[in-house]
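Item description
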Amino acid sequence: MMKNPAVVKDPVCGMDVETAMAAGRTDYKGQTYHFCGATCKEKFDLNPQQYLGDPAGTPKAGHGCCG
């Protein structure tokens, strides 16, 4: 019996990301964050607090990192 993969939201763009297939991850204040791509990870690493105030919600239309 296979388990469903863990899916989380990229805190930068709001895209759903399977943790096992994430392009990157960062540990910040005891929490692990997963990212759809290197660009979102880099943005988060530069200023994590900017992305933790409000949930990212749904992916942004035309967001360049999520092609």
